[in-house]
Amino acid sequence: MDVLKIATAGSVDDGKSTLIGRLLFETNSITTDKLEAIMASSKKKGLDYVDLSLLTDGLIAEREQGITIDVAHIYFSTPKRKFIIADTPGHFEYTRNMVTGASNANVSMILVDARNGVVEQTFRHFYISCLLRIPNVVVCVNKMDLVDYDQTTFEEIKNAFMDFAEKVRFPGQEISFIPVSSLYGENLVHQSAHMPWYNDAPLLSLLEAIPLEQHLSEEPSRFPVQYVVRPKSEEFHDYRAYAGKVASGLLRKGERVVVLPSGQETTIARIEKFGREIEAAQAKESVNVMLQDDVDISRGDMIVPLSQLPQQSRQLEATICWMDKKPLRAGSTYLLQHGVNTSRAKVSALSNLIEVVTLGADSTVSELKLNEIADVQLKTAKEVFYDSFAENRANGAFILIDEGTNSTVGVGLIK
Ligand SMILES: Nc1nc2c(ncn2[C@@H]2O[C@H](COP(=O)(O)OP(=O)(O)OP(=O)(O)O)[C@@H](O)[C@H]2O)c(=O)[nH]1
Q1: Does pTM top 0.90 for this prediction?
Q2: pLDDT tens, 115-136?
Q3: What Enzyme Commission number(s) apply to this enzyme (predicted)?
């Protein structure tokens, strides 16, 4: 069964936790003991309904204690599909979590409170969804019960959103709107009786029907080597394979390839998956690759087709989303992690600070503060073999790490 990855976003109190809780409840994804616990705490809080937001809020509390993960992943499934929701807190300063949670999402689900309409945070989340080239955006206009299920309110929000979206969306990006009430479970799994003017599918049906990305296999093929397989046993002493996950494209047996960074040419002799030979491996498949010639390969090297070589440089131009309290300044040095490779990188220039709401760009930038987005130029110590993010999501993104604290401080999308 395929898996749809959803990144959620909204401002504080838009109802994200309630929506996710309700979706889990209505798809029977909550265990009896959890449900009983939620019912008990709802009662204790004096509520006359079951507060399903307690379910995901509980996960967030667990996460905050755990410290190690920024984004909670919530799993559920229907007979048609499996779903993973990356739940990111809605607060302004947590946009960074949204960036890390959303980086390989199929869908960005953006919540809008029907009473407040489109707010700055909505623009920001949509802008980031576009930067990350998330192919589907679903805007849930929530709390429709609090605006008397009014169609005009919904249409106005939709128009305001689209006025902005038309300026930043990329070709092929799908945007849908659904009026919902998460508290009462309307238009989530079942059609709402209160909104007969809305004739499209409820949220779950829409999520079940979203096509998964097919284009990954059409991208240039990139195979980063995760480790070299050389069994110790006598019986296998000639066996040598390179294990990894195809980052993009299609890797074919018999294809002429180049090993980077060494530049040695060879041919793919055999591809194995779970010990069985296959003719080709596609994006996201984990396989062992065997080569015709004895080449020297180590972890972090990349196997690419001779006919589709990536760019190669020590100077990168990228759009950066900054995620650290300490601002980014020109001249600073970071660790740049690109796939399984790392290199030290120095910020040589900063430009075009994006004003997300007005879409203006300030060309004179001295520093980049938390949550800000701008263009940077980087000089790396090692050669980087990259594609532009627009061409190849997997090989066109990197993160910047602060060497002192070892934390991720920025996400870069290569131009
Ligand atoms: N009337 C009404 N209230 C709702 C609806 N959805 C959520 N709420 C209420 O709005 C408040 C905030 O909901 P949450 O689900 O906690 O909001 P959130 O977006 O997860 O908030 P954070 O976790 O702080 O980002 C709660 O009191 C919910 O009961 C809705 O559809 N209708």
Answers
A1: no
A2: 999 998 888 888 888 887 888 9
A3: 2.7.7.4
Superfamily of domain 311-414: Translation factors (2.40.30.10)
Q: What is the DSSP string of 255-281?
A: -EEEEETTTEEEEEEEEEETTEEESEE
Q: Is the peptide bond before 261 cis (omega within 30 degrees of 0)?
A: yes
103: tokens are 């980086």
**pLDDT tens-digit profile of 335-361?**
998 877 889 999 999 998 888 777 777
Mean of the pLDDT values across residues 392-397? 81
Which atom of ligand 1 lies closest to the CA of 181?
A: 31
Of 76-80, 110-114, 339-343, where does mean pLDDT reach its minimum?
Answer: 339-343
Among 183, 186, 192, 195, name the best residue to mutate to test ligand 1's pocket (greatest count of ligand atoms within 8 A of Cβ): 183
Residue 289 C-alpha to ligand 1 middle, in angstroms?
49
Counting from 1 in the atom list of ligand 1, the atom nearest the Cα of 21 is: 15
Pocket of ligand 1 (CB under 6 A): 10, 12-18, 53, 89-90, 142-143, 145-146, 181-183
Q: What is the largest CA-CA distance in the chain?
A: 75
Residue ranges per domain, the chain? 3-213, 217-305, 311-414
Nearest CA to ligand 1 atom 12: 13
Asked whether the ipTM of the predicted complex exceeds the cut of 0.90, the reply is yes
As a whole number of angstroms, the distance between CA 385 and CA 301 comes to 10
Integer CA distances (angstroms), 34 to 29, 51, 55, 362, in order = 10, 12, 8, 50
Closest alpha carbon to 220 in 41, 60, 392: 392
Query: Which residues neighbour 279 within 8 Å (Cβ) at sequence distance 6 or greater?
Result: 252, 253, 271
CATH code for residues 217-305:
2.40.30.10
| CA 53 to ligand 1 center in whole angstroms | 7
Q: Do domains 217-305 and 311-414 have the same CATH topology?
A: yes
Helices (H), 195-297: 203-209
Q: What is the CATH number of domain 3-213?
A: 3.40.50.300
Q: What is the pLDDT of residue 97?
A: 56
Centre of ligand 1 to C-alpha 242, Å, is 49
Candidates 12, 13, 22, 116: which one to mutate for ligand 1, based on the most atoms within 8 Å of Cβ? 13
